[in-house]
Amino acid sequence: MIRPVAPLPRAGQETAAPPFPPGSVVLLGAGPGCADLLTVRAAQRLAQADAVLYDHLIDPEILRLAPPSARRVCVGKRASRHTLPQAEINQLMIALARQGLRVARLKGGDPFMFGRGGEEMHALLAAGIRCEAVPGVSAALGAAASLALPLTHRDYAQGCRFVTGHRREGASALAWTTDSGPEETVVVYMGLGEAANIAEQLLSHGRAPDTPVAIVEQACMPGERCVCGRLAELGRLAEQYRLRAPALLIIGGVVKLHQELTALRAGLGHGLGFLDPGHSAAPVVATILRAPSHEYTP
C-alpha cells in the first residue's frame, strides 16, 4: 500500500505536527547533545507533552521546550547504574499514559540506536498504549559532523558498522569482531571499558595493528575530546588520557582522513563553525518552529 505524502509547507508557512493525543507516548530522539540538533517534530512533541521521562546528559535547553507545567522525571542509565530499572520505566510510561497524559520519552541520540526504544515500544503496544518514535541524530553521526570525520569514503571505507561494546551475559567474546574488514569503519557504542579487549579480539581476527582509531568523548557536548592512535594501543589511549563515558570508539582508515581534514581546516583558520561543541540555540529554535500549543488540534 502506498501512503499519501503531505505536501511540503511553502516559505512562511508554519509546520504543524500530526496530533499527539492524550493517553499516548512518543519516543523522542534528543540527538547527540546540542539543543539545536533536535528535529522539528521532536520540538513540537515536547511543546505538547504533559510528562517528560528523560535520560542523563540531556541538554537542559531541550527540557525547557516542554511546557512549564509538564512533569519531568529523570530515568537515565549510566554504565549499569540505573535511576530506574528498564521494567519500571516501561511501567511508568504505561501508568502515565493511562492517566490520559501525553508522555514524551526523551532519549539521547536515536531511540532505536542502542537506546532500548524497541523494548519500550513493545511494552507500550502490548499494554494497548498508542505510541510513535521520532528519530534523532545518533552520537556517531553527530561526532562525524562535529569532528570532520566521515564514516564512509570511497578511498577509505566502503561501509560502516555500528556495534555495542557490551557483551551478552556469560559471553567471553564479541561476535562482531570476527568478520570486521579493513575497508569497513566500525563505530563502537558503550565500548570504552572494553577498549583493550576489543583491540585484542580485532587483532586476533586479522585487523592490522596500525589500523587508525579514534576515541571520541562526549560527542557534540561542551566536553568533547577526540584522541587518535593505532588499534594496537587502543586500551592504553583510553587509560593515558583518562577518557570517560559517554564515548565512541571509531576504528578504520577514515580516522586518517579525519586527521588530514583537521589539519587542512586548521591551516585555513577555520573553526568548527556551525557545529561548535556545546553550542545551543534552543530559544531561537523554539521561536522559529512556532511549536503548536499544548492543546493543539488538527
Automatic annotation (TrEMBL):
EC number: 2.1.1.107
InterPro entries documented for this protein: 4pyrrol_Mease (IPR000878), 4pyrrol_Methylase_sf (IPR035996), 4pyrrole_Mease_sub1 (IPR014777), 4pyrrole_Mease_sub2 (IPR014776), CobA/CysG_C (IPR006366), Siro_Cobalamin_biosynth (IPR050161), Uropor_MeTrfase_CS (IPR003043)
Biological process (GO), any one: methylation
Listed GO MF terms: uroporphyrin-III C-methyltransferase activity
Keywords carried by this UniProt record: Methyltransferase, Porphyrin biosynthesis, S-adenosyl-L-methionine, Transferase
Gene3D superfamilies, per database record: Cobalt-precorrin-4 Transmethylase, Domain 1 (3.40.1010.10), Methyltransferase, Cobalt-precorrin-4 Transmethylase, Domain 2 (3.30.950.10)
SUPFAM superfamilies, alphabetized: Tetrapyrrole methylase
Functional pathway: Porphyrin-containing compound metabolism; siroheme biosynthesis; precorrin-2 from uroporphyrinogen III: step 1/1
Pfam family of the protein (one): TP_methylase
Residues in Tetrapyrrole methylase domain copies: 25-234
Family: Belongs to the precorrin methyltransferase family.
Xref: NCBIfam families: cobA_cysG_Cterm, PRK06136.1
Name recorded for this polypeptide: uroporphyrinogen-III C-methyltransferase
Species for this entry: Chromobacterium aquaticum
